[in-house]
Design a protein that fits this description.
single chain; alpha/beta; Rossmann fold; Immunoglobulin-like; six-stranded mixed beta sheet; four-stranded antiparallel beta sheet; 29% helix; globular
Length: 696
């Protein structure tokens, strides 16, 4: 069914409704209209890295880990698997009369906000700090969710529109002030790409105000969305965000005023309860019947495109329940976990030899933690494999594994009645009796995530600093002081100061939140079954670097992210090592692509990511550092050589002026090609320099 056909059907159906019936459909928990054959429908579903909160589903790495793959083709396959499972669950559960929350086909994903500050608790829900990478990955995810037919497999949603990335504690009342240049250059490109290129079906407004206007009723943002960008789908508020208009932002005095402001601006669907006041606003003459019906038509257009109204059905109605956690999807999750992990340091300890018969100590609060596998906005897996279990399985019959929790994740003791550091002696004893140590540290959703409020059942929020919790720092220092060959595995979703590990550990592997089965992938990488190939989609800093950055509430990009930060990061954007080296030759370029020759110089199979960066050499409007403008993942057998054409983003040869206008650049650019960013820190860590060419 085409959009025009779906819209015609929606107009006809809504035209048969009373005003009250049409108004009732603008809530996320839309009731049935039995006389018209309209079933109840709950719009709220989550699919950030697998179906979330709705029962059993395949668990993929958290979004920030998926970004570290630098692989839009694989991400599209993952999103397609997620949407297949959504259809399978919807088909089976609706047949049983279950139309509850988290069981629908409208996925409130992906999150394409920019991870501009390393303290932001929700940054691990995003694709990192770069607008180009975020746009490319976001488009791939939307394509996978929505399918390739005329109708929709599921409906994706670009969130949170816009200029939203902390502080979490202030989000219900905060006014994010961003310049026109930063808006066009950083905060809006991904949303524009998802609307214009991927044809995303929904956009969700943010909690905060942007430049004085609440995002769920912003004339500037929503006007650009439907006007300049030509958005045709529906707009949904973040959950209870419209209530914030009168309770927190204080831009309205009462719910009826908030309803009026949101509805007239074009917010079609309310996640929350404020739209229960629609009829009151209508009776007072504050909104019109046309306002109500316009929103209802947009929402029913989506439902018709999904094929869940009108009796015509959908090509996806036959997707069976058995596709949930099927072998194909579990293999895909495993492949993603392997590609997402980032090797930050290796002094030759890795890969470990699984056949050596040694004793390996696996230590740390995240070593046997299921919670550290799954991030937030997660579903329920039928099986979990922690890092400890992955190592035990891999070494079964070939070596001894000793285990100690070492410390609590953030509390002073593991047992409430025990003295502080009650697992430290055990950890030291295990490490002393081992040949090598795998120390698994980090965070989980209780320490970084979304602010706890009405729509969120737990509290975590932002990080106060970039340090590991104190018990983990004590554990790290004591284990490293033993002098045993030690690899630190970090399971976390954001930048952590790993200075002590960088100085004293033999190797560091960043596993992110690798998914329910991610411990197997981490073990396989540690023991050399595959070579790590992930790249950082954000910069890692030392904790002291926070003093150099603007205040968390300052949304200026000055001093933020790899494009504007002028200090030295601990680990730079785009960085990641492997178990071998590739060489790269730049063969030629034009405005659309760069041709490169890549050769695997090692004796084993490797995967690498070719990264392109560009900077306008003649314009003062260009960011101070080169910006990512293209990437391509490639798999090479030992000694294999391949020529690749790597597309260059269409905005690469433009700059943005202070009025927010994207204009042609100076006419002289420098393009770099390499396996990381063209900066001094990457060169120091890798021993390789990106190749470059001037383009004019």
């Amino acid at each position: 069914m085409t959009r025009e056909q779906a819209k015609q059907k929606a107009e006809e159906l809504v035209g048969r409704m009373s005003v009250e019936e049409a108004a009732s459909q603008l809530r996320f928990d839309a009731p049935a209209i039995e006389r018209l054959g309209v079933p109840a429908y709950n719009w709220w579903d989550e699919a950030l890295h697998g179906l979330a909160r709705g029962g059993t589903a395949t668990s993929f790495p958290q979004a920030i880990g998926l970004a570290a793959m630098f692989d839009d083709a694989l991400l599209e396959k993952i999103a397609s698997a997620i949407s297949t499972e959504a259809r399978a669950k919807y088909n089976a559960l609706s047949a049983e009369g279950d139309r509850d929350i988290y069981h629908g086909l409208t996925m409130w994903s992906p999150n394409v906000n920019i991870f501009r500050d390393p303290r932001w608790g929700r940054g691990h829900e995003t694709y990192g700090e770069d607008p180009y990478l975020t746009a490319r990955l976001g488009c791939a995810f939307v394509r996978g969710l929505q399918g390739k037919g005329e109708g929709l497999k599921t409906a994706a949603c670009a969130k949170h529109f816009a200029v939203h990335s902390g502080p979490e504690a202030l989000r219900h009342s905060f006014n994010a002030v961003a310049s026109a240049k930063d808006m066009e250059e950083t905060y809006l490109p991904a949303f524009r790409a998802l609307v214009q290129e991927a044809k995303v079906e929904a956009v969700m407004g943010a909690y905060n105000r942007t430049n004085g206007e609440p995002c769920c009723a912003s004339e500037a943002l929503m006007g650009r969305l439907r006007g300049e960008w030509g958005f045709e789908g529906h707009f949904v508020s973040d959950c209870w965000a419209i209530r914030d208009f009168h309770e927190n932002h204080k831009i309205t005095a009462a719910p009826v005023e908030s309803v009026t402001k949101a509805l007239k601006a074009g917010c079609d669907l309310n996640c929350g309860c404020t739209y229960q006041h629609i009829m009151h606003a209508f009776e007072l003459g504050m909104i019109t019947e046309e306002d109500i019906r316009r929103c209802a038509v947009r929402l029913f257009t989506t439902r018709f495109l999904l094929g869940i109204l009108g009796g015509e059905g959908s090509e996806y109605d036959a997707v069976p329940y058995e596709t949930i956690e099927c072998e194909e999807h579990l293999k895909l999750a495993h492949e993603a976990a392997l590609r997402s992990c980032v090797l930050l340091k290796n002094d030759g300890l890795l890969p470990l030899d699984p056949a050596c018969g040694e004793t390996i100590a696996v230590i740390g609060p995240n070593a046997d933690s299921r919670r550290s596998l799954i991030g937030n906005y997660h579903g329920t897996a039928s099986r979990y494999v922690t890092v400890l279990e992955g190592v035990q399985d891999l070494l079964a019959g070939r070596g001894r594994v000793l285990y100690s929790e070492g410390c609590a994740l953030s509390e002073k003791s593991v047992e409430p009645l025990a003295q502080p550091n009650d697992r430290l002696a055990e950890a030291v004893a295990a490490a002393k009796r081992s040949d090598k140590v795998i120390l698994v540290l980090g965070l989980d959703e209780t320490l970084e995530g979304e602010e706890g409020d009405t729509g969120n059942s737990y509290y975590s929020g932002d990080k106060g600093d970039l340090l590991l919790p104190e018990p983990q720092r004590i554990l790290l220092d004591r284990v490293l002081a033993l002098g045993k060959p030690t690899v630190v595995v970090l399971l976390a979703g954001s930048a952590i100061d790993l200075s002590a590990a960088q100085e004293k550990a033999d190797a560091i592997l960043l596993g992110w939140y690798p998914g329910a089965g991610g411990g197997r992938a981490v073990a396989e990488l540690l023991f050399g079954k595959e070579s790590p190939s992930g790249k950082l989609p954000l910069s890692f800093y030392t904790n002291d670097a926070l003093a150099e950055m603007p205040d968390f509430t300052d949304y200026s990009m000055r001093g933020r992210t790899y494009r504007y930060y002028t200090g030295t990061p601990l680990y730079p954007f785009g960085y990641g090592l492997g178990y071998g080296k590739c060489s790269l030759e730049l063969l030629g370029t034009d405005r659309g692509a760069a041709r490169v020759r890549v050769r695997n110089e090692s004796g084993r199979t490797l995967e690498e990511v070719v990264e392109l960066y560009i900077r306008d050499e003649g314009s003062p409007l260009a960011p101070p550092n080169p910006a990512l403008c293209g990437f391509c993942r490639v798999r090479l057998e030992a000694g294999e050589e391949r020529e690749l054409s790597v597309a260059i983003g269409k905005d690469a040869f433009t700059v943005v002026d202070e009025e927010g206008r994207r204009i042609p650049g100076s006419g002289t650019w420098r393009l770099w090609a390499g396996f990381g960013a063209p900066d001094a820190r990457t060169e120091a860590l890798t021993g390789r320099k990106a190749v470059s060419v001037r383009i004019s």
